[in-house]
Design a protein that fits this description.
The complex is a heterodimer. Chain A folds into two domains: 179 residues, Rossmann fold; 127 residues, Rossmann fold (3-Layer(aba) Sandwich), CATH 3.40.50. Chain A is built from eleven helices and 14 strands. Chain A has a seven-stranded mixed β-sheet, sandwiched between helices. Chain A has a five-stranded mixed β-sheet with strand order 9-11-10-13-14, sandwiched between helices. Chain A has a two-stranded antiparallel sheet with strand order 1-8. The N and C termini of chain A lie far apart (47 Å). In chain A, 57% of the residues are buried. By secondary structure, chain B is α/β, with parallel strands linked by helices. Chain B contains 14 helices and five strands. The radius of gyration of chain B is 22 Å and the shape is globular. The chains are: A alpha/beta, B alpha/beta. At the A-B interface, helix 3 and helix 4 of A face helix 7 and helix 8 of B. The structure holds thiamine diphosphate. Thiamine diphosphate (TPP) binds next to loops of chain B. Chain A: Pfam families: Transket_pyr (PF02779), Transketolase_C (PF02780). Chain A: GO terms for molecular function: oxidoreductase activity.
């Protein structure tokens, strides 16, 4: 069945389906029960499943993730909501030193299927700590899987795939994309979660991004097309592991790669993609890989976010530089 | 002075059983123990101390990277371990060697951890003794979550002590200052989870004395969260048993969490890398030797008529186990190189597969086996 849904609603329906399918799936987080979460992603779920499956937790992020680990040891599949990107750090140790390493410490005798949902990214004009893109910290950590849906359809399917994964998954939800609607085929069988995907074919330059960047790359491709430049747009979808095959195939065709991201460029997902493509497709490249990132400064006051974050213009500027080689 | 007016005790340092109104209910629990159980208390304390010393020797001889001695803390640990029921789950810190043994974990598994053979060591599903955790206090949250799960499973408050479960988490006076320990108390109390927080106050973190962690007795931390809390003489195996039994049974019956502070002392170093002479005075160490948990309990057993033969037998058993431990330690081999890629994830992961293959081919390129 096809429904026209926002990303927030699509994830909500995905959570609902996962909870109906498996009684061990429980939700934990701050204000996720009665309120339905500050972005309403869990709206209505406490009504349907009760307070034993939708837990309004005490206000403590390390406590949320740490107790989720204990619940996983007990056989549950907890889905934790971190209220905003900038508030995941109090839970950092439990995610990086505990959750990520439990499987190896247990030598496979026990799985740790914990999902950590993090609304992330800018473009919403919010105050400090509410617009960050901290995905690189988690991508750097072995033992975690990291994904980010860019569309309502991916939101609906990928949240279910993340929950059914037997490994910890950090699930980054681009909050700038929470509200625009598009069609979701809720009856479709989705492809693998860890697959990058060509979302617009083109022949001149390959542009890669994830989360809210994907829509911006598509906008850029539209503008470029008007100027006779053909961009091939790839949605990474999975940040760890990264599926390179579609990217390498595309670069073999275009010879040029631009990687866009909202995070600062230093030691970022974009750096990883750039380095790997340079290693694996050196002879296909006609130009150096170019990253379009936020600046390496803390997220500035929201009045300046338009200068801090990548824009369609800056992406097109990078495309021009790439074509100039 | 670590002991306060609140400190519960059943066995004096000279091994006599104390009577008081305040401890009558604990005395009743102990009076219910048969001779064999009391002998087991002694056996576990002595054997662990013997193995602990052996492990320290193995470390000095270069066989272990590090050893973490539990000398002096045997009563707190053995008593509380017997206070739990077999279907209760224990979340240790990293020094609870006697509890590991009581739960059926081979001492060699702990050796493997400190020899650098594994980062885990045993299957906690069998023993219900979870893995050691080295990042201080993180396990308190795992235990709180696990206990919440017991509640969600409906395994609490049914009135059947053989079905209802509790869990016990061990942590130290140093760890009590960590945010996680405090968050765990919040979660446990908020969800009325069936968990007992067992704080072994051995008076020091590494070098830092407990007064830096708290200006008031640590059992009051529990009280501050609204959790019924006790301070016990942690060198008295009987009170440790009885208070833990009462606390775990209260938790399993749905009365919410409990908190126990056991006043004890590590007679040895923090680890084999530590030098306590830099921060402790000899008088203090002497004082605590007089409070030794094992000699005190030996006096008690002798006063009940236990004869030399029993004590000799336990000593011999300990020596045999120590020599067996030594033999098996020396025979231990490192894990296969490519094991580092195994079980990082439960489901297939392309990076693990690719890097495992790469390393094997690289190693094979030197003429070894791939
Ligand atoms: C989060 C963290 N910080 C520091 C350390 C290093 N460290 C290991 S043990 C220890 C002291 C712990 O003291 P306590 O909690 O009283 O337990 P004890 O070792 O005395 O049993 C320290 C500082 C650690 N393991 N974890």
């Amino acid at each position: 069945m096809t429904e026209n849904l926002s990303l927030a609603k699509a994830i909500n329906l995905g959570l609902q389906k996962a909870m109906r399918d498996d009684p061990r799936v429980i939700l934990m987080g701050e204000d996720i029960g009665t309120l339905g979460g500050v972005f309403r992603v869990t709206e209505g779920l406490k009504n349907e499943f009760g307070e034993n499956r939708v837990l309004d937790t005490p206000l403590a992020e390390s406590g949320i993730v740490g107790s989720a680990i204990g619940l996983a040891m007990r056989g549950y599949r907890p889905v934790c909501e971190i209220q905003f990107d900038g508030f995941v750090y109090p839970a950092f140790d439990q995610i990086v030193s505990q959750l990520a390493k439990q499987t190896t410490r247990h030598q496979g005798t026990q799985a740790f299927p914990v999902v950590i949902r993090i609304p992330y990214g800018g473009h919403i004009g919010a105050i400090e700590h509410h617009q960050e893109s901290p995905e690189a910290y988690f991508v750097h950590t072995s033992g975690l899987r990291v994904v980010s849906p860019a569309t309502p359809s991916d939101g609906f399917h990928m949240i279910q795939q993340a929950i059914s994964s037997n490994d910890p998954v950090v699930f980054f939800e681009p909050k700038a994309r929470y509200w625009p609607k598009s069609d979701v085929d809720t009856g479709a069988t989705p492809g693998p979660m860890h697959q990058s995907r060509v979302v617009r074919t083109g022949s001149d330059v390959t542009v890669v991004g994830h989360g809210a960047m994907v829509a911006m790359l598509l906008d850029a491709a539209e503008v470029a097309a008007g100027e006779g430049i053909s961009l091939e747009v790839i949605d990474l979808r999975s940040l760890s592991p990264i599926d390179y095959d579609p990217i390498l195939a595309s670069v073999q065709k275009t010879g040029r790669l631009v990687v866009a991201q909202e995070a600062p460029g230093q030691a970022s997902v974009g750096s990883e993609v750039a380095a790997t493509v340079a290693e694996r497709a050196f002879y296909s490249l006609e130009a150096p890989v170019i990253r379009v990132s936020a600046f390496d400064v803390p997220f500035p006051p929201a009045n300046l976010e338009g200068y801090y974050l990548p824009s369609v213009d800056r992406i097109l500027d990078a495309v021009d530089r790439s074509r100039g080689f | 002075m670590p002991y306060t007016e609140a400190t519960l005790q059943l066995l004096s340092t000279d091994g006599t059983l104390l009577e008081s109104d305040r401890t009558a209910e604990y005395r009743a629990l102990v009076d219910g123990l048969d001779d064999d159980t009391l002998r087991s208390f002694y056996r576990e304390m002595v054997t662990t101390r013997r193995l602990d010393i052996e492990a320290g020797n193995l470390q000095r001889q270069g066989q272990l990277a590090l050893w973490v001695p539990s000398l002096g803390q045997e009563a707190a640990q053995v008593g509380s371990a017997f206070g739990t029921r077999a279907h209760d789950t224990i979340f240790p810190s990293y020094r609870e060697h006697s509890i590991a043994r009581i739960r059926g974990v081979d001492f060699l598994s702990i050796i493997a951890l400190l020899r650098g053979v594994t980062n885990g060591g045993w299957d906690p599903r069998e023993s219900k003794f979870r893995l050691y955790t080295l990042v201080l206090a993180t396990q308190t949250l795992h235990a709180a979550g696990y206990a919440m799960g017991i509640g969600l499973d409906g395994k609490v408050g049914t009135g059947n002590v053989d079905a209802d479960e509790a869990c016990v988490v061990y942590f130290g006076d140093g760890a009590s200052s960590e945010g996680d320990a405090n968050e765990a108390l919040v979660f446990a109390q908020s969800y009325q989870a069936p968990i007992v927080f067992f704080l072994q106050n051995n008076q020091y973190a590494i070098s830092v004395p407990v007064v830096r962690q708290s200006r008031s007795p640590l059992y009051l931390r529990g009280e501050g969260f609204g959790i019924e809390s006790y301070q016990i003489d942690g060198n008295d195996v009987l009170i440790s048993y009885a208070v833990t039994r009462k606390a775990t049974d209260a938790a399993r019956s749905g009365q919410g969490p409990r908190f126990i502070e056991a006043q004890t002392y590590r007679l040895g170093a923090h680890t084999t890398s530590d030098d306590p002479s830099k921060y402790r005075v000899a008088e203090e160490e002497e004082l605590w030797k007089e409070r030794d948990p094992i000699s005190r309990f030996e006096k008690f057993l002798r006063s009940r008529g236990e004869a030399d033969a029993f004590f000799d037998q336990i000593r011999t058993e300990g020596d045999d186990l120590a020599s067996d431990l030594r033999t098996r330690t020396l025979a231990m081999t490192p894990p296969p190189v490519d094991a580092m890629f195994d079980h990082i994830y439960t489901d297939e992961h392309p990076l693990m597969t690719a890097q495992k293959k790469w390393l094997a081919e690289y190693e094979a390129s030197f003429g070894g086996e791939s």
